[in-house]
Automatic annotation (TrEMBL):
Lineage, highest ranks first: Eukaryota, Metazoa, Ecdysozoa, Arthropoda, Chelicerata
Cited SUPFAM superfamilies: ABC transporter transmembrane region (SSF90123)
Single Gene Ontology MF annotation: ATP binding
Entry keyword set: Membrane, Transmembrane, Transmembrane helix
Matches recorded under InterPro entries: ABC1_TM_dom, ABC1_TM_sf
Transmembrane feature ranges: 12-30
GO cellular component annotations of the record: membrane
Protein name: ABC transmembrane type-1 domain-containing protein
Length: 71
């Protein structure tokens, strides 16, 4: 029976397959975490720039006379 794989060889392939699946899982987790951090950083920078521009805008103060009725 040449088609039968012995127990040690089968365990070797199972370990290789398990290692590849584990590496795939870790890579996917790192990719998701990196994407989340990149999106959060972009969002914070966008909101900071949106809110800081009106704060730094010049204020046009015009002194208009108050419409007071004389008694």
């Amino acid at each position: 029976m040449a088609s039968v794989i012995d127990h040690d060889t089968r365990n070797y392939y199972v370990y290789i397959y398990s290692g590849l699946i584990g590496a795939l899982f870790v890579t996917a987790l790192m990719r998701s975490t990196t994407w989340f951090m990149m999106c959060m950083r972009a969002s914070v920078n966008l909101h900071n720039s949106i809110f800081s521009r009106p704060l730094r805008a010049p204020i046009a103060v015009r002194q208009q006379p108050v419409d007071c009725k004389e008694v």
